[in-house]
């Protein structure tokens, strides 16, 4: 029931821990299999496949997830460093590196590899864009021979790809600027200042991430227009620069969610320090309240569900997100689920197994529900240390957790996993409430 370990090539625990975490995400491995299928159809020599990061990464992750039979208890991942160097990354095997930085290197390199594919659009591609529901078997060709393979360039975003929304509202005239979208491959969360006597939870970090902030001296087009007309509420406006309220939300949640807890801080003297406090997290993660919803007509039941959700959500006040505090929670209401909280209201989630959707009313059942797949932990300080990984055993043994430190692999308990001081959290989306039928819904 164990998985292979990875040879330490000289301070390469940062790479080994990340590979073990990625190998516990089945959706990412499936995406790599679909992405590399294009290379299997090419008439190339077998050794030329090793220049592709996607092929090299897939071989390693399949071996670490026991999808490929290997007699070795310890694998060598030096081939990954070699292919990254071929992609012009300067990575030394003997210098201490950061697992989160390597994660960005891998995702950006995979995107570069995808973008290097031919950009010439095939006629069949245009046809499939106009009719996305068409299948390969339905396409007929009047020329002899088989139909050329279609490139799914627009469908090849990796499962960690998500989008943030940035919403700006003028405090003076309440004019809302167009929503801006930015891509992300991981959510990098700062750890807010701890309140004495209260444990730090993942919800606190997420709410701090999306909490609104004031941005001063922003030119407001609407105020400028009103100024040209001359009067607002009977007073002349002299300055078109106003203060805006900026709000971040998650516009598109990825299939695989990587959360990075920023443990780097700075002392008053300017020296780097590591924050060691424990941030509580659960086996299951509900992300609905952090999702950006497009305003539109809603049924009375949806409005009631939203009202109930806002009343019982930590950190929600008057429908606006803020820092969670006990004072902001209405009397007599308790949230059905708090990410990272170990209170009695969510204690039933601490045991391994299936997320109890039946405990939620139909309109309150989560739509964006994630299951913990791996945790990367850093031991040590900012100058030296060691990365280890907690991950699920692959396949049918998915309820069994493993602790992996380079070549060493042993079994672990869920309680030990949840007690770890996480640096990287890998979650994978599971089926929650019935998915919306609208194709516009990500």
From TrEMBL:
GO terms for molecular function: cysteine-type deubiquitinase activity. It is an enzyme of class 3 (hydrolase). GO terms for cellular component: cytosol; nucleus. GO terms for biological process: protein deubiquitination; proteolysis. It catalyses: Thiol-dependent hydrolysis of ester, thioester, amide, peptide and isopeptide bonds formed by the C-terminal Gly of ubiquitin (a 76-residue protein attached to proteins as an intracellular targeting signal). Residues 4-430 form the USP domain. This is Ubiquitin carboxyl-terminal hydrolase. It comes from Certhia familiaris.
């Amino acid at each position: 029931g164990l998985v292979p370990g990875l040879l330490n090539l000289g301070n390469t625990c940062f790479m080994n821990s990340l590979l073990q975490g990625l190998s516990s995400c089945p959706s990412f491995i499936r995406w790599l299999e679909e992405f590399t299928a294009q290379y299997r159809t090419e008439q190339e020599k077998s050794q030329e496949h090793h220049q592709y990061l996607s092929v090299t990464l897939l071989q390693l992750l399949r071996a670490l997830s026991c999808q490929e039979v290997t007699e070795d208890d310890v694998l060598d991942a030096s081939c990954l460093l070699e292919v990254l160097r071929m992609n012009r990354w300067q990575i030394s095997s003997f210098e201490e590196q950061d697992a989160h930085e390597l994660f960005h290197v891998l995702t950006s390199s995979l995107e570069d590899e995808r973008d290097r594919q031919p950009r010439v659009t095939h006629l069949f591609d245009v046809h499939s864009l106009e009719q996305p529901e068409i299948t390969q078997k339905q396409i007929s060709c009047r020329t002899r021979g088989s139909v050329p393979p279609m490139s799914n360039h627009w469908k090849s975003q990796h499962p960690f790809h998500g989008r943030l929304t940035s919403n700006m509202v003028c405090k003076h005239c309440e004019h809302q600027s167009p929503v801006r979208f930015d891509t992300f491959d991981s959510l990098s969360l700062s750890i807010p200042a701890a309140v004495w006597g209260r444990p730090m939870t993942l919800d606190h970090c997420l709410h701090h991430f999306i909490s609104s902030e004031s941005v001063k001296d922003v030119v407001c087009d609407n105020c400028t227009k009103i100024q040209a007309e001359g009067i607002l509420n009977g007073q002349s406006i002299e300055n078109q620069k106003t203060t805006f309220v900026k709000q971040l939300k998650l516009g598109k949640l990825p299939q695989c969610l990587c959360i990075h807890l920023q443990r780097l801080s700075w002392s008053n003297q300017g020296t780097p320090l590591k924050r060691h406090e424990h941030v509580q997290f659960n086996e299951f993660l509900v992300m609905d309240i952090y999702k950006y919803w497009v305003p539109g007509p809603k049924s009375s039941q949806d409005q009631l569900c939203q009202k109930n959700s806002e009343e019982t959500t930590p950190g929600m006040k008057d429908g606006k997100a803020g820092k969670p505090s006990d004072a902001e929670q209405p009397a007599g209401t308790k949230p059905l689920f708090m990410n990272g909280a170990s209170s009695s209201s969510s204690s039933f989630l601490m045991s391994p197994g299936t997320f109890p959707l039946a405990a939620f009313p139909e309109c309150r059942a989560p739509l964006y529900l994630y299951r913990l797949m791996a945790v990367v932990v850093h031991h040590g300080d900012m100058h030296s240390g060691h990365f280890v990984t907690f991950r699920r055993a692959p396949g049918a043994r998915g309820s069994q957790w493993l602790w992996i430190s380079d070549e060493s692999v042993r079994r672990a308990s869920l309680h030990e996993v949840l007690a770890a001081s996480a640096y990287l959290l890998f979650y994978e989306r599971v089926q929650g409430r019935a998915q919306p039928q609208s194709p516009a819904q990500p």
